[in-house]
Specification:
heterotrimer, A mainly alpha (about 170), B mainly alpha (about 100), C mainly alpha (about 625), A: about 170 residues, mainly alpha, Four Helix Bundle (Hemerythrin (Met), subunit A), 2 domains, C: about 625 residues, 2 strands, globular
Chain lengths: ~170, ~100, ~625
């Protein structure tokens, strides 16, 4: 099991790095999906099969399909690809990398100092999660439903084409 | 024995990679993808913590993060479409009308 | 009969209200009838009440009429209640009667004035307030009347408000008396705090039970009340407002600034005499204030050339005599002098008003002259008033009241020889300035032609007052007996001067003043001019003319620092803190808005950097 963990960790990191450096959106999306799949494997290793399945179905499945549709709707041509390539100069990566390295170093340092006791592998299946979800977290579930409804309404409103007058309010800015 | 510490480090690495993506890329679609990576890393940390204490709570929170990510992305992508429709670009440095 | 007492203030008040609201739409004849009638009814009523009071005195020598509780807060329950005893009875009778005469006079004097109904509304309100002041059962109600008369005084001084000078005079009167009123208010707080009541009679009993003679509380309370009295009665050092108050119409000067309101301070001290007996130091201060004021004002009166200002200074001087009497413990004599003064000073003002109107609003006495034949009625009434003021022996009322005061100063345990000498010097001065005025105005060569002759409505009140100015003096003994019911009698002792010597000296002092005036202004006018134009004379003249430089002094002491600091602080230093805040906010806005680049990545970078920093803090702290 440990080997599986390390391999999938390596795959997740590599896929994420590759995603970040792609020029074409569709390629990046495919690497992102790979990264998510690798994380799903890690969930399984950690004894969370239900979450692993959900990661597959919802994240790698539904959400990424949404992404693909958007990328297709945008229909970014060769021109954009060339522009994107020009933007990806090596110097662009220095600042963010330094900042991220500091954050990571702090994180690891705190992790090392805190000391994590080893734990036995125990699988926590959908039953326990379900009982917990509809027991103490019931209000959270209700709130989530409202959030999703809000997302639905917002996406529908923004996606509808009958809002040309929004342009006018922007133009008044000096 | 579960690789708890290693899992946390993996979550940290994925999160910082997401940060790099948000800061370095200028295309909105890539920024959204990087945000997904960051959210996923945070969810991973929760699940790891849940496994550590053998509690389902970590997974429950992951589910909430999942729902939140879905809602965020649907609105975010709708905005991306609308922006592209109006400005014919997704470069965030060009879309800087909210300058003070 | 006594239970009709409440009508005495209520009728003028109602009339003032009606005149204020409907006056401008009423015909002037109706205004005159209502305005004067609203005083006539209380005056008659008061005479009837006085008759009932004297013929069948109420139990305890005082009658109290409680109308309703004014304010009820815990143990603090001042009532709208009237207290009638010998003291307030005399005061109210004199006030209502003189007010009535002056109202009758005003109906003619003010005829044709734009603010005819406004004038009567103010005057009626004044009478209502004054009667409330005099009849008040507790000090709070007294204070209400006190402020009410102050308000009417202000309104009437500035009656012809189109001229800014009159408005300034009104404001000056209001502000200067406010200084005294503030002291008085503090005195009321002190009294209520330490004695727990403001009912005057309870207060005096409790005070004499609780406080020793000379206790600091008694001294403080008496001194603070004296402050109020000094302000209202235009005594040193707050006398500066009264000469300027002559800017008001002449009937106003006669009623408010001579006969009634300015003696409110005398009434206040007489009413609270128990407090002053507990504080002999303050009582001495009252006497010294009175003596100093009567001399200073007498000197100033000598140099004035405005007929009304001469009379104003003489009013200050005569009220000085009343304070003087109060200070030596001659309570009854003070009230007696108040009464005679109300008659002869009102008379003098009314006669002066006749002269002023006859000469087309000429105030300068050196542009009058020779009016004896032109205005004989005015001359004779003025002469009677002047003789009463100066104290023509044996005939006039002023002589008897002043003589009583001087005798008390000599024969009281509180009196001293110095005070008596000051009083006698005051008699010389009074006689001197009074006859200077009479000789200059009514003798010599005519300077201004007479344009207007007074009608009966103006002369009859003057005749009545002239009659009273002479006859009131013969009532000395019964009056003293009557006052003894409300006020303690003189503590005899001191020098033990006999009445004959005192009266003779006072009479001689009168004659001395008369002779000097006759010599300097009538027989040998060049001498008077020479005295006034010599070097010493010029300096003294200027000094006295400007009221001993008091206005100048107050100007330097109070007005200049305020004006100077206002000028220095033109930019408003205090405000700069707040403008500085807004400037700081604007500055911060300018610099922080630079961070609003509109670039999403920068914002994200700031968030990431901030979280790195926050985690670092969590790590190392």
């Amino acid at each position: 099991m440990t080997i599986v963990f390390y391999v999938s960790s390596a795959v997740a990191i590599a896929a994420t790095v590759l995603m970040l450096t792609r020029v074409r959106a569709v390629h990046a999306l495919l690497y992102l999906i790979v990264s998510l799949l690798a994380v799903a494997v890690i969930f399984y290793v950690l004894g969370a099969p239900f979450v692993a399945a959900l990661e597959l179905i919802i994240y790698a499945g539904a959400i990424m399909v949404l992404f693909v549709f958007v990328v297709m709707l945008l229909n970014l041509g060769e021109e954009t690809v060339r522009a994107e390539r020009a933007l990806l100069a090596p110097s662009m990566w220095i600042g963010p990398s330094v900042l991220a390295a500091i954050l990571l170093a702090e994180f690891i340092w705190m992790l090392a100092r805190g000391g994590v006791p080893p734990a036995q592998a125990v699988s926590i299946g959908p039953v326990e999660v379900g009982i917990s979800l509809f027991g103490p977290y019931l209000i959270g579930v209700e709130l989530t439903s409202m959030l999703l409804l809000g997302g639905l309404v917002g996406a529908y409103h923004l996606g509808s084409r009958k809002a040309p007058h929004t342009e006018v309010t922007h133009a008044t800015h000096p | 024995m579960l690789p708890i510490r290693e899992s946390f480090i993996l979550a940290g690495i994925l999160f910082t990679l997401g940060v790099i993506g948000v800061l370095a890329r200028r295309n909105l679609v890539f920024i959204l993808m990087s945000i997904e990576v960051m959210l996923n890393a945070a969810g991973l940390a929760f699940v790891v913590a849940g496994a550590q204490w053998r509690q389902p709570d970590g997974q429950v929170v992951f589910l909430f993060i999942l729902a939140m990510a879905a809602a965020e992305l649907s609105v975010g992508l709708a905005l991306v479409l609308e922006l592209y429709r109006q400005y014919k670009t997704l470069d965030t440095d060009v879309l800087s009308r909210m300058r003070g | 009969m006594l239970d009709l007492l409440w009508l005495v203030p209520a009728i003028p008040f109602a009339s003032a209200f009606v005149l204020a609201v409907f006056g401008p739409r009423m015909r002037s004849k109706a205004v005159a009838v209502l305005g004067a009638g609203a005083i006539a009814v209380p005056a008659v009523l008061m005479l009837l009440i006085a008759a009932a009071f004297v013929s069948a005195p109420p139990a305890g020598g005082a009658y109290t009429q409680v109308l309703w509780t004014w304010i009820g807060v815990g143990s603090f329950r001042p009532a709208i209640a009237f207290y009638l005893d010998a003291l307030s009875l005399v005061m109210v009778v004199v006030v209502t009667f003189v007010s009535f005469l002056i109202h009758v006079y005003s109906t003619e004097f003010m005829r044709g004035d734009e603010g005819y109904s406004r004038f009567f509304a103010y005057m009626n309100l004044f009478v209502a307030s004054m009667v409330t002041l005099l009849l008040a059962d507790n000090l709070l109600l007294l204070y209400l009347g006190w402020e009410g008369v102050g308000l009417c005084s202000y309104l009437l001084i500035g009656f012809w408000y189109q001229d800014p000078v009159n408005g300034l005079a009104g404001r000056k009167a209001f502000i200067v008396t406010r200084v005294g009123d503030t002291a008085m208010a503090v005195g009321l707080f002190l009294l209520f705090h330490s004695l727990g009541t403001l009912r005057i009679q309870d207060l005096l009993h409790t005070a004499s039970d609780q406080w020793q003679i000379g206790s600091p509380y008694a001294v403080a309370a008496a001194a603070l009340l004296l402050g109020g009295a000094v302000g209202k009665s235009a005594q040193l050092p707050l006398q500066t407002w009264l000469p300027d108050a002559m800017a008001g119409p002449t009937p106003t000067s006669a009623l408010i600034h001579a006969a009634t309101m300015v003696t409110a301070g005398v009434y206040l001290i007489a009413r609270t005499h128990g407090l002053y007996e507990l504080a002999p130091q303050v009582q001495l201060a009252v006497a010294v204030t009175g003596a100093a004021t009567l001399l200073m004002a007498g000197c100033s009166a000598l140099t004035q050339n405005d007929i009304k200002r001469v009379l104003a200074y003489s009013t200050i001087s005569q009220i000085g005599y009343m304070f003087f009497a109060l200070g030596v413990g001659a309570w009854g004599a003070a009230i007696f002098h108040f009464m005679t003064h109300a008659f002869f000073k009102a008379l003098l003002f009314l006669a002066a008003g006749v002269v002023i109107e006859a000469l087309h609003h000429e105030h300068n006495i050196f542009r009058m002259g020779g009016l004896r034949k032109e205005l004989p009625a005015a001359f004779w009434t003025f002469l009677i008033g002047g003789c009463a003021l100066a104290g023509l022996p044996l005939i006039t009322a002023g002589y008897y009241s002043k003589d009583l005061i001087l005798w008390s100063a000599a024969n009281s345990t509180a009196g001293t020889a110095g005070l008596w000498v000051a009083g006698i010097a005051g008699v010389v001065l009074t006689s001197l300035y009074t006859f200077r005025l009479i000789f200059v105005v009514f003798f010599g060569q005519p300077a201004t032609p007479v344009s207007h002759r007074p009608g009966p409505a103006m002369m009859i009140p003057a005749f009545v007052l002239a009659f009273l100015s002479i006859t009131a003096g013969f009532a000395t003994t019964p009056f003293a007996a009557f006052m003894a019911k409300a006020l303690p009698e003189l503590h005899e002792g001191g020098m033990g001067m006999s009445e004959v010597i005192n009266s003779t000296v006072a009479g001689l002092a009168f004659l001395a003043g008369l002779l000097v005036a006759w010599y300097a202004y009538l027989s040998n006018p060049a001498l008077g001019r020479a005295a006034a134009t010599s070097r010493v004379g010029r300096v003294l003249h200027r000094f006295w003319f400007s009221d001993w430089g008091m206005d100048w002094f107050y100007d330097r002491l109070f007005v200049w620092p305020v004006v100077w600091s206002a000028k220095a602080n033109k930019a408003d230093i205090v405000d700069s803190i707040y403008t500085g805040l807004t400037r700081l906010a604007a500055l911060c806005h300018r610099y922080f808005s630079l961070t609003e680049t509109g670039r999403l990545r920068w914002y994200a970078a700031w968030i990431a950097g901030g979280s790195a920093f926050a985690v670092a803090i969590a790590m190392f702290l």
